[in-house]
Design goal:
The protein is an alpha/beta fold. It folds into two domains: 179 residues, P-loop containing nucleotide triphosphate hydrolases (Rossmann fold), CATH 3.40.50.300; 81 residues, no CATH class. The protein has ten helices and 13 strands. Strand 7 and strand 8 form a beta hairpin. The radius of gyration is 19 Å and the shape is globular. GO terms for molecular function: ATP binding; ATP hydrolysis activity. This is ABC transporter ATP-binding protein. It comes from Azospirillum humicireducens. Keywords: ATP-binding, Nucleotide-binding, Plasmid, Transport.
Length: 279
């Protein structure tokens, strides 16, 4: 079990509230090449936090440490005052963390409903054999999973495509299905890896609205990696900026867009002249 902090990590947004996520002095290297160097920041409950930076800045490595895929060389990650090391995906889900990846990972031949219900697979107690032969306990669990999935389909306005094979849907709708699957277990922390990649401006606006709704209506804390700076500036409460594995800035969108170090290392120009499309 994760170890409880003797003194809970608190968020800079509210000194009386334990952070939903805290990264403490995390360093990571691969074969002598430094990917992350002494990274520390905290994310408040209910916050949308973006992580940005040039290619190779360490963003994906950081998300892999936070999601338990990588064990850092030094430092720790805290979830709501509990520390954890590298863990399997199903164990991570039981800790209240869910993640999407840049590339779609849907079951293309299954219905939208079954894809979303698959997000609850870590909670199923009936064994594989019981599922295959349809024992009462397995049927009951399947019905409960589908009921939860139906709620998310309605929440994200996907109920009209519930029975469609996921692979037949437009790309932007498939990204929303993936978001529904990540949210169906009601995670405390949702990690999004380039959620807007490959999307049109209209699709970005649509998905951004649903991400906000996940925070506002479900109380989900969200950490996302995203290359579209316009989207990041409009969607995020706070932004962490990485460059060559170092944290060079951490603040509000206004702080970041006007930070000369960030402009020099990443943005190049002030946000009103930046190429990011925004939402």
């Amino acid at each position: 079990m994760p170890a409880v902090l003797s003194e809970p990590v608190v968020s800079p947004a509210n000194g009386n509230v334990p952070s939903a996520l805290a990264v403490e002095a995390v360093s990571l290297s691969f074969g002598g090449v430094t990917a992350l160097s002494d990274i520390s920041f905290a994310v408040a409950p209910g916050e949308i936090r973006a992580v940005i930076g040039p290619n190779g800045a360490g963003k994906s490595s950081l998300l892999n440490v936070v999601s338990g895929l990588y064990q850092p060389d030094r430092g720790r990650v805290w979830l709501g005052g509990h520390s954890f090391a590298a863990v399997p995906t199903d164990r991570l889900a039981k800790l209240g963390v869910s993640r999407t990846f840049q590339n779609l990972a849907l079951f293309k031949g299954l219905s939208v409903l079954d894809n979303v219900a698959a997000g609850l697979s870590h909670r199923l107690r009936a064994g594989v054999l019981a599922q295959v032969i349809g024992l009462p306990a397995a049927r009951r669990e399947r019905a409960e999973a589908h009921a939860r999935a139906e709620e998310l389909l309605a929440f994200l306005h996907l109920d009209g495509v519930r029975d469609r094979p996921a692979g037949t849907l437009p790309y932007g709708i498939q990204k929303r299905v993936e978001l529904a699957r990540a949210l169906v277990a009601r995670p405390r922390l949702l990690l999004l890896d380039e959620p807007m990649a490959g999307m049109t401006l209209t699709e970005k606006r649509d998905l951004s609205g649903h991400i906000r709704a996940a925070r506002d209506d479900l109380g989900t804390t969200i950490v996302l990696i995203e290359h579209d700076v316009g989207v990041v500036m409009d969607l995020s409460d706070r932004i962490a900026v990485l460059d060559y594995g170092r944290l060079i800035a951490d603040g509000t969108p206004d702080d970041i867009r006007n930070d000369p170090v960030v402009i020099d290392a990443y943005l190049g120009v002030a946000h009103d002249l930046e190429a990011g499309e925004g939402i």
